[in-house]
Write a structure and sequence with these properties.
The chain is of the alpha+beta class. Helices cover 25% and strands 32% of the residues. A hairpin with a 4-residue loop joins β2 (20-27) and β3. The chain is extended and about 40 Å long.
Length: 116
């Protein structure tokens, strides 16, 4: 197996036909490297990253209360066709699906369901 030990990510790109995407990085020796994957892998990657982050924070800091927090400029909660889920949208960020218990708690809290 080939292992690329990255130092930091640089850019990404999506193929013109949308079938693959590339994640560009610099390795530990300051040489550029690229990981190219089929876009069919994106869902698995997106669903895996939160657990990778949770585990790495726990192992690194030995504190299960550690979280990564991002500032949010605005947000909205949108209803879904399936009543058990709602989607929260952030401008220029990923959509995060939450179960109905979370959505009900937002509704009952009096928080506006439109952009702030």
């Amino acid at each position: 197996m080939t292992a690329i030990r990255g130092a930091h990510l640089t850019t990404f790109e999506v193929a013109p036909n949308g079938e693959t995407f590339s994640i560009h990085l610099m390795d530990e020796e300051a040489c550029p490297a690229t990981l190219v994957l089929p876009t069919d892998c994106l869902n698995a990657l997106i669903m895996t990253l939160p657990d990778v982050l949770r585990r790495s924070l726990l192992l690194r800091y030995r504190d299960d209360s550690m979280r990564v927090v991002y500032p949010v400029g605005s947000w909205e909660v949108a209803g879904a066709i399936i009543r058990s889920c709602e989607t929260m949208f952030w401008p220029a960020a990923a959509e995060v699906d939450r179960c109905s218990r979370w959505a009900r708690s937002i509704r009952s809290s009096g928080v506006p369901a439109c952009p702030i």
